[in-house]
Amino acid sequence: MSESIGFIGLGQMGLPMAKNLLKKGYNVFGFDTNPTAMSELQSFGGNVGKIEDWVYNVQFILLMLPSSTIVNKVLHEILDAHTFDKHIQQDSLMIIDMSSSYPSDTKKNNRILENHHISFIDAPVSGGVKKAIDGSLTVMAGGTAEQFERSKRLLGALGRNLFHVGPIGSGHLMKAINNFLSATHLLASCEAIQLLAAYEVHPEQAIHVINQSTGRSGSTEYKFPNFILNEEYNSGFSLDLLRKDVEMAKQLFAERNAATHLPELVFEKFNEASQVLAKGADHTEINRFVSTYLLK
Ligand code: NAD
Questions:
Q1: Last residue of a domain, one of 167, 188, 218
Q2: Given Cys at both, which of 32, 46, 88, 165 links 37, Cβ 3.0 to 4.6 Å?
Q3: Residue 135 sits in which domain range?
Q4: Which residue among 7, 8, 10, 12 is best mutated to probe the pocket of ligand 1, counting the most ligand atoms within 8 A of its Cβ?
């Protein structure tokens, strides 16, 4: 019999990931506060419904939610539903938080779930909506070696590069710092390309040259050609979610009294941009915000 998976958070990332599980033959039970997302999963062959209606049926629950605050709330909802049923076999459930959450919250959640004999790991992802759709995400997991082994087949249905980074919380730590780098590259690239344009180097030419040179990054190789130069700004990753990741990274540097201003500076720009740009703006629209301050 195929394994059954609960999937909570069917947004830009979660929906294509849940669809991939269905394609690979898993039984999927989905929940999202947005009914449209649930209907979409259902029309693709998934089961949908409230957590308490399917929590007894699943071996794994995957979370793909916007923030730690929401993850914390949903975990309590799972616990309410789970402890309600006395028939559930102890140690039979594993919860995997694939959202980009705070590592400290992840460690706290692990302690709570351990007390309920529920196995918990963090396994956030990188690669964006495109890789979520084609099942080639990079997955960075935190937990024990045994937990990683147990989750590997399932995670392999969603991603191509699976990494066990370290103990619980390490995946979320890795992800926050990865996204700080990605945000920094993006911001610096937007400033650089706009500066070059002011010196009359055409942006397309500038990106072409940089991509054959040492200044290149994921921003110049992928984001500029696909979402920025064509002014479509439709990567599927919101500015607000990246702002959250940079804030998390800023906090992680501060907790270690790191002697750097860079996280603070990058956060400041993303934070200001999120106040100026329309609600729901794509993270690549930071380019628009850069044009408001860079060259007066
Ligand atoms: P999203 O906003 O598109 O999706 C989040 C989903 O969670 C929405 O459908 C929302 O309705 C649902 N939700 C909110 N509160 C809920 C609740 N209490 N119970 C059930 N469902 C609830 O976000 P996304 O872009 O899919 O990102 C999800 C996570 O993945 C975030 O942590 C983000 O930082 C991370 N991430 C996103 C990308 C990307 O490219 N979009 C890439 C890597 C990681």
A1: 167
A2: 32
A3: 4-167
A4: 12
Place of tokens 């029309």: 43
Same domain, 195 and 289: yes
| pLDDT score recorded for residue 82 | 74
| Residues 21/5, Cβ–Cβ less than 8 Å | yes
**ipTM score assigned to the predicted complex:** 0.99
The structural domain count of the chain equals: 2
Entry field: residues in the chain? 296
**Domain match, 190 and 157 both:** no
Residues linked to residue 28 through DSSP beta bridges, in sequence order: 5
Distance 216 CA to ligand 1 centre (A): 29
Give the C-alpha separation, 44 to 23, whole Å: 9
Same domain, 80 and 119: yes
Instruction: Give the whole-number percent of the chain exceeding pLDDT 70.
Output: 97
Please identify which residue in the block is written with the tokens 């069917």.
10
Question: What span, in angstroms and rounded, lies between the C-alpha atoms of 285 and 273?
Answer: 9
Query: What is each CA distance from 201 to 196, 212, 215, in whole angstroms?
Result: 5, 16, 16
Q: Is 141 found in the same domain as 39? A: yes
